[in-house]
Input
Amino acid sequence: MLQGKTSLVTGSTSGIGKAIATRLAEAGANLVINGFGDATEIEAFRASLEKDFGIKAIYLGTDLTDVSAIDDMFSEISAKLGAVDILVNNAGIQHVSPVEDFPVEKWDLIIALNLSSSFHTTRHVLPHMKSQKWGRIINIASAHALVASPYKSAYVAAKHGIAGFTKTVALEAAKDGVRCNAVCPGYVHTPLVDGQIADTAKARGISEEDVKNNVILSAQPTKEFVTVEQVAEFTHFLCTPAADQINGTLMSMDGGWVAQ
Output
């Protein structure tokens, strides 16, 4: 389905991004892996994508809060794989704190990575996508692109920004065959969340099951986590012809969270 196309998935060394990278590779797309982590594990992942799916995969550990580093990344991608046809903006971090106590450096970092980096990657890919009359830009947002929660001011602000940015890009590029959408998951079951469950259970003196149902999943009526595979499959769907008329949308995957 995606043979011959080049995809860039930011934050793809673990969690949601890794699952998306795997699904796109399975569909035949060449891949740029981006993110931080153990070098040996990342190389094993990169090599496995090439071996299992017969595609080309490169790893670039670019710091997406550095604009000049992003510029250099695209020069390297162009030299090694050609222009990017599918961009998945997934990289992000979180910090929880009341507004009056929120560390300024944490605010700046979250806005830079969770919001501004998507602008910088998108401005690089649009000229090629427009010229070939086909492209897919998929922003992995969050339920927090649609609703807010206390103590997550920077994250909520960034994800709301992604929502507006998605709509703007979709309108600007609609006649050029480019589609820009945002996937808005609720709580996704990742190793990072597993750690948070264990820590919260210990801190509150309650069971991990209570943490899952009454703390983390309290806002999700299904009381079920979204899986990384579900996000990956939906992201792949948005790259298929069946999704040609889906543009500028914010698509919830949250078990009914924002329906309340």
The mean pLDDT is 96. The longest strand covers residues 178-185. The helical segments are 15-26, 39-53, 67-80, 104-132, 153-173, 191-204, 208-216, 228-237. The longest helix spans residues 104-132.
